[in-house]
Amino acid sequence: MMAGERVCGILLHVTSLPSYGGVGDFGPAAYEFVDFLAAGKQRLWQVLPLNPTGYGNSPYSALSAFAGNPLLISVELLVRDGWLTAERIAGLPGNTGPCEFVQAEAAKMPLIEEAAGNFLDRADEASWKRFQVFCEKNASWLTDYAMFDVLRRRFEGASWNAWPREYALRDAGTLAALHRDHGRELAMVQAVQFFFNEQWCSLRGYCSERDIRILGDVAIFVNYDSADVWTHPELFELDEERRPIRVSGVPPDYFSATGQRWGNPLYKWDLMQNNHFDWWVARVRRSLALYDVTRLDHFRGFEAYWSIPAEDETAIHGQWIKAPGRQLFQRLRELFADASGRLPFVAEDLGVITKEVDELRKDFDLPGMRVMQFGFADRGGHMYLPHEFVPNCVVYTGTHDNNTTLGWWKDNASEAEKENFETYLYKLPYDEDVVWAMIKAAASSVAATCILPLQDVLHLGSEARMNTPALPDGNWSWRYAPEQLHPDLSEKLAAVMAMTDRDGYVPPATNS
Fold first, then answer.
1. Can 348 be counted among the known catalytic residues?
2. In this predicted structure, what is the pLDDT of residue 305?
């Protein structure tokens, strides 16, 4: 986002699109959604991480910090491009109802792999050249990810530390034999990643033509069972058997007496710093190849992180350890800042934030986040209300981790919160009016950037919640129905954008 520019956008993960095949993808429904954004004068589309998901289908639990999720590839576009026939995709799961990840994986992946084989066998010269350029440009992660993916399937989805020792410890001769004897399988993984890249770049280009930028997301930590840890064990706090020594989480607080034990292996920050943060530089470069702006999840972990002994079952006995965030962001500023010196990041600074964390964010001029649902419980939450905002922040009615605004109002908000809401805004004649009251308050605030979950625009309740943290099942599966993107909603959004100067209008120059 440019300094001083007022914009608004919609938060919707790609899997929430009503795409053919059972899970949202980069196909026709995505383009229809972009048209809806443009009609509503929305200039940002925020997505969650696009990486291949592991446990629980969570985009924050990825098998790679660099690769793309193959399930986001549209089989309809593979038919259009000639890599599949229309008959082959008949009978796939439809475009209504929640995501069916297991069924989609079983139905779509064989077709995507078939398309990859067809590509390898009969790609024309121009397509093959693009594929070669993609593989060369991304070789630093793609080669190892292809091996990881092939081996993970060979060993029936087992975590890499449960593979035969020669594979788990990356014996050079064993990996050389894998390349020699299974080159076709490895090339197919690379071709699938090429499909992902081609389809996403086309969709992003379609957004750019309509003055819509992509706000992406990077989780600070990576999974233990990931290509990243398997490939670069030296960068993580692992013992001689490559088992985690200490893991990530957050300490006990008001919400949890035992804290949260996330379980991600922690970085060897001193080694990363000595290597000029090369791994983080590569990760940010990959992010900026996918997104225009990146949200940094758990920003406070760049200043200090909660370190938990790996053998502990809870987060109680962890401790805060300082991280070299200032040195990291200085390195990133040298490489990725724009002409004005601004970095293309948004800092997720929710929760209990220390003075040191806030200073780190401000010193690098990163906008923080303000979630209006948090503002009505007591005076301690007033920083999430518009009168406390500064221009350099991003206001949300709610995020993917919150209930929808209507769901919050009906199912979660206390009577005190409702009274405070009506005191701050106005008396609502109907429960449903709370949603657009919140949207208008966010849009009319001084925050330069405003993000609205699509569920709020569609006026949906708790049934449309995307994620309930710590709930093991039922998350990430919400999808909207195609008929819900009604033109009346885009007209309503456009009117609000015009009145709050978020529609990109540039007044004519006047003579002074």
1. yes
2. 97
Note the pLDDT tens digit of each residue in 154-191: 999 999 999 999 999 999 999 999 999 999 999 999 99
Q: How many CA atoms lie within 13 A of 58 on its CB side?
A: 19
DSSP assignments along 95-111, one per residue = SSSS--HHHHHHHHHHH
Measure the CA–CA gap between 507 and 485, rounded to whole angstroms: 30
Q: What is the pLDDT of residues 74-111, one digit of tens each?
A: 999 999 999 999 999 998 988 999 999 999 999 999 99
- Cα distance between residue 161 and residue 242, in whole Å: 8
Residues of the chain with pLDDT under 50: none
Catalytic residue of the set 198, 217, 297, 456: 297
- What pLDDT score does 510 carry? 60
Q: What is the DSSP letter of 316?
A: T
In the residue annotation, 401 being an active-site residue is answered as yes
Structure-token pair, residue 197: 């890249």
What CA–CA distance (Å, rounded) separates 159 from 142? 19
Choose, from 217, 348, 417, 503, the residue flagged as catalytic.
348
Quick one: tokens of 205?
Answer: 């280009």
For residue 262, the SS3 value is: strand
Task: Round to whole Å and give the CA distance between 437 and 428.
Answer: 9
**Site of tokens 């398997």:** 230
In the set 237, 292, 401, 433, the catalytic residue is 401
- The helix (run of H) or strand (run of E) holding residue 371 is strand 368-371
Q: Quick one: how far is CA 153 from the chain centroid? A: 25
Q: Strands, DSSP E only, in 64-104?
A: none
What structural domains does the chain harbor?
A: 7-499 (3.20.20.80)
